[in-house]
Amino acid sequence: MILLQSVVNGVLLGLVYALIAAGLSLIFGLMEIVNFAHGQFLMLAMYGAYWLAVLYGVDPLFSLPLWTIVLFLLGVATYWLIIARVLRAPMLAQIFSTFGLGVFLQSLAQFFWSPDFRLVPSPLVKGRIEILGLFVGIPELVASLGAVIAFALLYLFVTRTETGRALQATSEDREAAALVGIDSHRMFALGWGIGLACVGIAGVLLSNFYYIFPEVGFPFALIAYVAVALGGFGSIPGAFVAGIIIGLVEVLSGLLIGPAYKYLFVFLVYLIVVFTRPQGLFGRY
Amino acid sequence: MLQVKNITVAYDDVPAVVEVSFHVGEGEIVSIIGANGAGKSTLLRTVSGILRPVAGEIWFEGRRIDRLPANQIVHLGISLVPEGRRIFGRLSVLDNLILGAYTNRDPVARRERLDFVFSLFPVLHERAGQRAGTLSGGEQQMLAIGRALMSRPRLLMLDEPSLGLMPKLTARILQAIQEINRQGVTVLLVEQRVREALEIAHRGYVLQTGRIVATGTGSELLHTDLVRKAYLGL
Fold this sequence. Notes:
CATH topology of chain B: Rossmann fold
Helix content of chain A: over 70%
Shape of chain B: globular
Oligomer: heterodimer
Number of domains of chain B: 1
Number of strands of chain A: 2
Strand content of chain A: under 5%
Radius of gyration of chain B: 17 Å
């Protein structure tokens, strides 16, 4: 029973990981740039939900659409202000530009909001329910449901709309896409917008039950990198499956071996992938 | 229709094309022939806006286009079938074709273009739902041409459409190019298969190490010593 309970918890956690990883993977697949500030954007979304709840009494569930849009716009702005300038730069410059942005955002949060741990006071979704003898936290359940919905919408957008197909075409062959008239800069900006909107949704959903502090994004981002590597760089379905696998590995190794070692096993998975299947489960690189 | 005036194109300061001039008239098929590395692809990539010339001008229908990005040049009515086909392998054949009409979202016009492409290459109709990456080499080339036609270009440029195809398929592709030309589309063709390329061309240019060394009608060029010795091995 406790094993089954852990499996459920692992899947719920994994779905949130998957959404964070999807944003990362989308951006990488489009332009081979890793967003090292991904975790910090997650942190910003969590603080955003927190402050709206504390200052104006808006529950994170209701501020979710707002922060999704804000993070989308932040993504577009990040692309035009920073990424577009390093697109042809050496890889090291690209790494430092997003890494530096992450350090900057984290320091900013520390400066304005102090390193204190905070919790959203009495969110709408709280408590837990019992289903068939299993206990499921309602905030966790809501978070994973939200992640699934966001994932489904992302998938439909990418595969069913003309703009989504243009995004896929750009990701596959930038030059050939330009030759049919697709403006790759617009697609890149859109990719950053969607990528950060994903992480924004995840952040707001997490703020319902997770401590909020300036470094909160870091472990999530680290796990998202593992998920992206496991699922295959640039693959959105890959990020989905990999997120769940990692959630399961984390919770099950915590249960069976000890909570202190759970990340050890997550990164062991990463090493195994790198050594045996570097392109990942659904990868193309 | 297209005037290329004294363009020089360089990769990292190494010139690939030096002071090349040529023109393509409305309704023509013009072939540019030359050996591997002579700069043929560079020329087409420059006209299509992927590369920028370091000197010279390119004019299309009275407009200077050498400073425009590739995605805007398509809007003007120039379409390139790139070397190596460059189809979107993970998308379906139909999605590839629809993306070819990205510049024109009018569904009626798209339907009409699609019908034209399918009549030209019926095999694409049969395989419309298939992933483009699973097509054979010849079918991929047809798809690449079809995709380029979807934007309703007035000038169609083809970069080595015969690359990697067996002779029978090459003939089929060249036949299609002539058919497209009869429909009123001007064609600029770059080929290593010199004889075939000159046979279907109204005019041709010979490019050697980045410079144009000969020009004339297709049959004139086929009978010059230069072409006979250097490219036909006669």
